[in-house]
Amino acid sequence: MKRILILSGIAVVLLGGGYWLFGRDAATAPGAAGDGGGRFARPPMPVEVDKVGRAVITEEITVVGNLIGAATVEVVPKVSGRLQSVSVRIGDQVRQGQVIAVVEDREIREQVKQAEASFDVARATIRQREADEKFAQTNLERTRSLFQRQLLPRQTLDDAEAQAQAASAQLDLARAQFAQASARLEELRITLANTRITSPVDGFVGRRNLDAGAFVGPNAPVASVVDIRFVRLVVNLVERDLRRVKQGVPARVEVDAYPGETFTGQVARVAPVLDPQTRTAEMEIEIPNPTYRLKPGMYSRVQLTVDRRENALVVPRNALVDLDGRRGVYLVGDDNQSVTFRPVDVGLQNQQRAEVREGVVEGQRIVTTGAAALRDGDTIVLAGQPGGRGPGDRASRPNGQGASEPAPSTPPSAARGSRS
């Protein structure tokens, strides 16, 4: 029994070794399916092709951030007191100078009345002092005339001159008091006007902080008004992109609130200095917003067009591949079944296309979809088209098997050997 088991094991080893040797010889024999170098041939790869053409190509930089308004202002009262009324709510559109709230003003109105009375008194005093000064001047002229004719003593003339000077001084004092009363009245009128809290800018009420009855002061904002006639995006621009972004560069803006819709703007300002810690410069992009659809706080993606080429030689972006450290494309042969790698010099690039400065000419056919899986000299099958006749292609067979179905694994020489 033990001898039978040993003999059986030896037989299995001999049969396995013979099968391995036969299979290897058949695979490497002349005429076997392969590349003649001991490797099995790669099956044809289904690909899509396109032609090298000419088009306008732009290079873009994408930045992201939150939109902010053109101006956001906290509306604060200039006087302290209790709010009598608040006439706006969140979302209301307001104009510059429009009354938003009113502070109780009864005490200030009384002060204004008192100041107006003092103003009237000071004005009447001026009229009285002007009359006194005129009388004193007339008396001085009469006294001087009589003194010159030696009809009055010197003392009388001196007294008349002193009275005239006193009257003039009294007039100056009255005029100063009148100016003081006028300034006080104007001050109180301004204070009274400040009890009307107005919007400093055109815009919308973004926040309402207080209601009627609350006590307010210069440090207690009543509401917040935001101007959104245009919105801004303030982002940091990295150092390597700073030389390519200038004031006036066009910008395309997309927001999640309006999928598929694009808004246009431009670079308004670029800071002339870099932050030494982040090595970035602050950039401000302005987007006109005449319909007020864009709102501050919306998350946005902005694409800046930093370069443009007219009538450039371009290829689809997915046609570019890297092979052995070289950038290039696969050219389709005249037989529509083989490809050749061709190095190219790439210029501007965007998400769809790439500029080719040299390496290909207009009209040449190149592989697009599927290029990344190819090797130089591979056979291909055009996607969606029958008739690929490379090794393993069965698209034209009567049974209708697809081109992606692998070829039979039995080499032709082995098949002939089995028939014999």
Can you walk me through this structure?
With 420 residues, the chain is of the alpha+beta class. It folds into four domains: 31-55 and 311-406, conserved putative lor/sdh protein from methanococcus maripaludis s2 fold (Beta Barrel); 63-70 and 228-309, Efflux pump adaptor protein, beta barrel domain (Elongation Factor Tu (Ef-tu), domain 3); 77-101 and 197-221, RNA polymerase II/Efflux pump adaptor protein, barrel-sandwich hybrid domain (OB fold (Dihydrolipoamide Acetyltransferase, E2P)), CATH 2.40.50.100; 105-194. Helix content is 29%, strand content 34%. The protein contains five helices and 21 strands. The protein has a six-stranded antiparallel beta barrel with strand order 3-10-13-12-11-14. It has a four-stranded antiparallel beta sheet with strand order 7-6-4-9. A three-stranded antiparallel beta sheet has the order 15-16-17, with no helix packed on it.
Present the secondary structure layout.
Blueprint: H1 2-28, E1 45-47, E2 49-51, E3 53-75, E4 81-86, E5 93-94, E6 99-103, H2 106-148, H3 154-194, E7 196-198, E8 203-208, E9 215-216, E10 223-238, H4 239-242, E11 250-255, E12 263-270, E13 280-288, E14 299-316, E15 321-323, E16 326-332, E17 339-343, E18 345-349, E19 353-358, E20 365-367, E21 380-382, H5 412-419
Parallel strand pairs: 1-21
Antiparallel strand pairs: 2-20, 3-10, 3-14, 4-6, 4-9, 5-8, 6-7, 8-10, 10-13, 11-12, 11-14, 12-13, 14-19, 15-16, 16-17, 18-19
Helix pairs in contact: 2-3
